[in-house]
Design a protein that fits this description.
six-stranded parallel β-sheet, globular, binds uridine-diphosphate-N-acetylglucosamine, about 375 residues, seven-stranded parallel β-sheet, alpha/beta
Length: about 375
């Protein structure tokens, strides 16, 4: 029996763990345990995803909640240690790059528990991003590292991680996307928005914004709004809003400005299936999320990423992604190019085929950790 403890904490983790939890069920030699750190806790940021994606209820919820980086990371570490001492898993599996990822990973390796990192090796080379620090540290202590794209493998090798720990397997988040695309078709969100008069039968764009570098400084946020102001005159923009962003709109005195843009529609955070439906039917996505750059690539929807760098270069090299930073001129120019049909035909990255979780579990069981 292999006891695998799986960690989730924040919204993007849920899509990544779902196919692994399903895959474990195929093996009677695996005992999975699911731990939720509670980093995200609102119903629409957490529970809704468990329901929609059929993720089992967490065996343990640490209930940590929000805090500064140090407080959140430290509280997770303090809470996970006694759980590990009682549960004694053989393996801990962490996904992505959030504070829960490094906090739990660090405690596990110090208790000599093998650490598996899914979505390893991604690098933005921007150490002002909290996620970049989390990625570098988690990778450096992991025993097995699963990469979504070749750049991840190259980065890890360059950092001196031995090749036999590294496996290019594709992307568990894309497993979830492909598994749910049909189900998302029956979401009524577009019809509902039409009935509410938010959308007509024409095209629309989707916007997400939550990076501290974009929304914490009102001057930067305001520049992004300059670009959006122009684009929304052409096409309605749907804006499901992250709690951090909503707070910062208020504290930065920017809420009035957004409300004055009649074609920029703020919405509460929405669930996975509704969001997938919106993405898949949109004409354009504007985002500073990491995962959405990848989802739009698979869906072949043009994506303007409101950042100067990406840790997911394959989405720019062969996918639909274009980096425009937070510069309104660049945002508008890229939008105009798109309207003029200047957009190349994208390709799907290798192994983004819905089978990554199967490959991962096979490698874990293949004795690589002993
Ligand atoms: C975290 C991750 C980020 C990920 C994002 C996805 C880190 C360092 N950052 O950022 O990589 O892209 O999640 O959403 O781990 N809040 C709520 N309800 C919630 C959760 C948060 O209201 O359920 C509010 C709190 O006021 C909190 C703020 O949002 O202070 C930020 O939450 P936090 O988890 O600290 O970081 P995110 O910005 O969500």
């Amino acid at each position: 029996m292999l006891k695998i403890m799986n960690i989730v904490g924040a919204r993007p983790n849920f899509m990544k763990i779902a196919p692994l939890m399903a895959e474990y069920k195929k093996y009677d030699t695996i005992t999975p345990i699911l731990v939720h750190t509670g980093q995200h806790y609102d119903q629409k940021m957490s529970e809704l995803f468990f329901e929609e994606l059929g993720i089992p209820k967490p065996d343990i919820n640490l209930g940590i909640g929000s805090g500064s980086h140090a407080v959140q990371t430290a509280e997770i570490m303090k809470a996970i240690e006694p759980v590990l001492l009682v549960q004694k898993p053989d393996v801990m599996l962490v996904v992505g790059d959030v504070n829960s990822t490094i906090a739990c990973g660090l405690v596990a390796v110090k208790l000599s528990i093998k650490l598996v990192h899914v979505e390893a090796g991604l690098r933005s080379f921007d150490r002002t991003m909290p996620e970049e620090i989390n990625r570098i540290l988690t990778d450096s202590i992991s025993d097995l590292l699963f990469c979504t794209e070749q750049s991840g493998v190259d980065n890890l090798l360059r950092e001196g991680i031995s090749a036999n720990k590294i496996h290019l397997v594709g992307h568990v988040m894309i497993d979830t996307l492909l598994n749910n695309l049909k189900k998302a078709e029956s979401s009524t969100i577009i019809k509902d928005l039409q009935n509410q008069g938010v959308l007509n039968s024409g095209s629309f764009a989707v916007l997400t914004l939550h990076r501290p570098s974009n929304v914490d400084d009102p001057a930067v946020f305001s520049r992004i709004l300059d670009g959006l102001e122009v684009i929304q005159k052409d096409i309605p923009i749907l804006f499901p809003i992250h709690p951090r962003t909503r707070k910062n709109l208020a504290t930065g005195n920017l809420a009035g400005r957004v409300q004055s843009m009649t074609n920029l529609h703020m919405m509460d955070p929405i669930g996975y299936l509704d969001f997938l439906k919106l993405l898949s039917k949109s004409s354009l996505v504007l985002t500073d999320s990491g995962g959405i750059q990848e989802e739009t690539t698979v869906l072949k929807i043009p994506c303007l990423t409101l950042r100067n760098n990406t840790e997911r270069p394959v989405t720019v090299e062969i996918g639909t992604n274009q980096l425009v930073g937070n510069d309104p001129e660049k945002m508008i120019a890229a939008y105009r190019n798109l309207c003029n049909g200047k957009w190349r035909e994208p390709q799907i990255p290798p192994l983004w085929d819905g089978k990554a979780s199967g490959r991962i579990v096979k490698v874990i069981l293949g004795g690589m950790l002993s």
